[in-house]
RNA sequence: GGAGAGGUGGCCGAGUGGUUUAAGGCGAUGGUCUUGAAAACCAUUGUACGGUCUUCCGUACCGCAGGUUCGAAUCCUGUCCUCUCCGCCA
């Protein structure tokens, strides 16, 4: 979520920024937000002042009714006078009469019960008005929040401005592109030939975009996950094992909801969902907490399966395991101070790149333009591995700074050293890395003329020293 | 899944529907005292939002959401979570 004060103070500037993001619908909400915010504050001030008077009167009522030292005669008289004062909305006088701080002139006999009934009637009228006011506030705030939840994060000033993902700035590729003396095959041929990816049976079990890894396929994936986690640990990340099913609030916290509600899988009859990424669990881990600056940065890493419905990309990338409903990912995550988050983004991105380098697969960094930033990032780098079989760059990591966008939604705060005034912290996330696409890249880059696949050096210690996957299964 | 007991501030823990502050303690912070520390004593104490916004004022928050009432931590309903016992289970 954006800071509402920013929209209040610089609505035109915010609109200009949103224009860079290709989000027409969000743009149209800004005027509405400004209006609702003004209404909200005006109504709140008015109703809360009335509520203050009401609280005071109710306390005075208790004092009057429970005052053992006061004769019924005087109580009745005060109640009657207070009711009259309430009738002309003189709340101060009414409360002084009730709590005894203003003398009451006793001029006529008043019946106690009748006087209190009259007073309670006046208080009820006042209370009903205020209750209506609070209902109005709740309605306004609900509508305001609903609008705010649909406003994307604003781009960092260093992000190239463009609406087209074609314009993403590709850095110089790193690594050696292998020269093949045969035509490299795509993984959807290599996998079945080696009997390590079984598409038919995956589909039999669960439908399209599901697959089954078998033998070396499953083993290679497990090796990769261990390797990724060990790399992250070496880089100072604390490993987490998180729930894979979370409450819907968590998806609001990490900003998948409400906009991307149809990209996740829900649990029947429960308000819970399968993780589309570990980011959701980690973002909300410190929800509603206030950390100390000395705790930061917090670096976490978690391996989880990721479940995605991929409704938006129906029909695209249906071949192979490039885009699937279930995959394994190792996610790096940082909670930092606002001062350090951009430096940390560079650090995290280099760490992701380093994993590609260690696997000895050619890769490149993409600097994502404003129009392709997504909903929550202020700045984002993608890392792509080259896959000679399908002859394309495959996104294997995406590293983002969301600044305080998720922190504001999930209430992630910290006390700067020496103060007790909390601030929102910054959050960053980056894959490090995701398996099915890395498996694709390894199969396609390391395939040999005889159909075998060489196992990257760094993975061998995870597979008992084996150096190749052969068609005969050895 | 069944039965029961509970959810109160950073922590522990009181709290007959009212008579202006959620008692008291612990912890933390500041101060007094001290050569320094401890002890003792004094003071302070959360979050969010709003107000002519650093120290002032107000509103809301006693798991969460509703309800009853002039007034709810307290009464009612629902819900989530925790604990104990039983059942099941890796």
Give a written overview of the molecule:
This protein is an alpha+beta fold and 474 residues long. Helices cover 43% and strands 18% of the residues. It is built from 14 helices and 17 strands. It has helices spanning 4-9, 11-19, 24-66, 72-87, 91-99, 112-148, 187-194, 199-206, 216-234, 248-253, 278-285, 341-359, 405-410, 435-445, and strands spanning 169-170, 197-198, 212-213, 238-240, 245-247, 272-274, 289-292, 298-307, 326-336, 363-367, 379-387, 392-401, 412-415, 423-424, 426-434, 453-454, 468-469. The strands form five sheets. Strands 1-10-11-12-15-9-8-4 form an eight-stranded mixed sheet, sandwiched between helices. A three-stranded mixed sheet has the order 7-13-14. Helix 3 (24-66) packs parallel to helix 5 (91-99), helix 3 runs antiparallel to helix 6 (112-148) and helix 4 runs antiparallel to helix 5. The two termini are 53 Å apart. It binds one RNA strand of 90 nucleotides through residues 40-41, 44-45, 47-49, 51-52, 54-68, 99, 116, 119-124, 126-127, 288, 290, 411, 420-422.
A few lines on this structure:
The protein is an alpha+beta fold.
Main attributes of the structure:
single chain, 474 residues, alpha+beta, eight-stranded mixed beta sheet, 14 helices, 43% helix, 18% strand, RNA-binding
């Amino acid at each position: 979520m954006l800071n509402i004060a920013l929209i209040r103070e610089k609505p035109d500037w915010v609109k200009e920024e949103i224009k860079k993001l290709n989000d027409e619908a969000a743009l149209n909400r800004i005027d509405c937000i400004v209006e609702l915010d003004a209404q909200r504050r005006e109504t709140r001030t008015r109703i809360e002042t009335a509520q203050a008077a009401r609280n005071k009167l109710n306390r005075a009522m208790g004092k009057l009714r429970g005052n053992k030292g006061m004769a019924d005669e005087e109580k009745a008289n005060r109640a009657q006078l207070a009711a009259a004062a309430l009738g002309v909305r003189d709340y101060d006088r009414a409360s002084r009469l009730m709590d005894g701080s203003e003398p009451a002139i006793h001029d006529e006999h008043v019946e106690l019960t009748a006087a209190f009934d009259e007073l309670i009637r006046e208080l009820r009228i006042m209370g009903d008005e205020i209750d209506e006011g609070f209902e109005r506030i709740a309605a306004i705030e609900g509508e305001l929040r609903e609008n705010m939840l649909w406003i994307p994060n604003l781009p960092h000033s260093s992000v190239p401005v463009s609406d087209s993902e074609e314009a993403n700035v590709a850095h110089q590729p790193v690594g050696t592109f292998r020269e093949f003396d045969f035509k490299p095959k795509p993984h959807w041929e290599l996998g079945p030939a080696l009997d390590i990816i079984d598409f038919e049976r995956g589909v039999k079990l669960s439908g399209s975009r599901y697959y089954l890894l078998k033998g070396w396929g499953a083993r290679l994936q497990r090796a990769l996950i261990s390797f990724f986690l060990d790399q992250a640990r070496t880089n100072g990340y604390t490993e987490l094992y998180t729930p894979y099913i979370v409450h819907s609030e968590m998806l609001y916290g990490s900003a998948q909801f409400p906009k991307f509600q149809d990209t996740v899988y829900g649990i029947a009859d429960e308000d819970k969902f399968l993780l589309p990424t570990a980011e959701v669990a980690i973002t909300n881990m410190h929800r509603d907490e206030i950390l100390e600056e000395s705790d930061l940065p917090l670096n976490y890493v978690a391996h989880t399966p990721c479940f995605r419905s991929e409704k938006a990309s129906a029909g695209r990338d249906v071949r192979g395991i490039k885009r699937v409903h279930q995959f394994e990912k190792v996610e790096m995550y940082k909670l930092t101070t606002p001062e350090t988050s951009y430096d940390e983004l560079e650090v995290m991105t280099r760490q992701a790149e380093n994993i590609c380098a260690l696997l000895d697969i050619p890769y490149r960094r993409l600097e994502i333009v404003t129009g392709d930033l997504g909903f929550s990032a202020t700045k984002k780098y993608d890392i792509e591995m080259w896959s000679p079989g399908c002859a394309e760059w495959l996104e294997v990591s995406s590293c983002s700074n969301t600044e305080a966008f998720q922190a504001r939604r999930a209430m992630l705060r910290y006390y700067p050293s020496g103060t007790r005034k909390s601030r929102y912290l910054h959050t960053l996330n980056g894959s490090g890395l995701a398996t099915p696409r890395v498996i694709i890249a390894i199969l396609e880059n390391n395939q040999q003329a005889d159909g075998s696949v060489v196992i990257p050096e760094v993975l061998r210690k995870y597979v008992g020293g084996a150096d190749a996957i052969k068609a005969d299964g050895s």
